[in-house]
Structure formats: C-alpha cells, structure tokens
Amino acid sequence: METRPRVLIDTCVLYPTVMREMVLGVAARGAFEPVWSARILEEWARAAIKLGPTGEAQARAEIALLRGNWPGAERAASPSLLAVAVASSADMILTLNAKDFPRQILAEEGLSRADPDSYLHGIWQATPELVAPVADAVLQEARRLSGEQWEMRALLKKARLPRLAKALA
Prior knowledge:
Layout: E1 6-9, H1 11-14, H2 17-28, E2 33-37, H3 38-47, H4 55-69, E3 74-75, H5 81-87, E4 92-94, H6 103-108, E5 112-114, H7 116-126, H8 128-146, H9 152-158, H10 162-168
Parallel strand pairs: 1-2, 1-4, 2-3, 4-5
Helix pairs in contact: 2-8, 3-4, 7-8, 7-10, 9-10
C-alpha cells in the first residue's frame, strides 16, 4: 500500500472557507493525510472574531465538524508549527506564510513547504480526477450559500488559488 504524504495545515489555509474545503476535499479523496494542532484550530477560532459577533461561534462549529470528520488529524499543541510538524512526522507544511518557514530550516528537519495553490495544482496535474469533483462540489456549495452564480475561475481566484482556477476553468 502506498503511503500518503502527511501534511501539516497552517491556520491561514484552514481559515478561508473555500481554500479549506478544497484542501480537505482533496485530502478526503486520498491525496494526502492532513495534520493540525489544537493551537492551529484555536488560532482559526480567534481570527474569525473579526467577522463579527457570530464569527467565532461559527468557526468553533466548523472546528467541531472538522474534528469529527478527521479524528486522527489533530496533534497535541506545541510551541511552534515546526515542532508539531516534526512531532507528527509530517512531510510538508501547507502555508501561505513563506517568511516564517525558511526552506533551509525545514530541510534540516526533513520537511518541505508548499502554498495551497501550487500544491493543489500539482495534485490536479498528476490526478485531475481527484481535484475536479472537489472543485465542482465547492462551487455548488458556494453558489448555494451565497445565492450568487459564482464561476469556478472567479471563486478559486478569490480564494487565493489562481493557478488551480486557471487549470479548472
């Protein structure tokens, strides 16, 4: 049996809904094993406060669902993302925050770093049948929730996934 890469997902990837749904949708189809810590999830809940009075409550509800859907993904809180990645034997950190994770430091720990757009685009190039149905489902849900007729390219570009948007459009 082929082992799937273990990928630590940073808060900045979990917090925007469309990005999270794309990343975890692809993980659910077997592309990789997601990992996060209690601290990462707490950062997400606190960041959602800026959405208004219901932001944090909504985030906490989504976090509860996430924990239910991915019972093996959460690791003990650690002082740093890098410590969580090393302790969980992750292969990679998925983040938009390149400056806090210099490649040479990660390489010393046997880790790599990728941004969600490049990572998902690479998975799409290798196995489009894994990614396309996820994107279609995310698009339908965005249309349902917003009442707007989103187009795939616009939705994914807004979600900071421009390469994937172009590939799927």
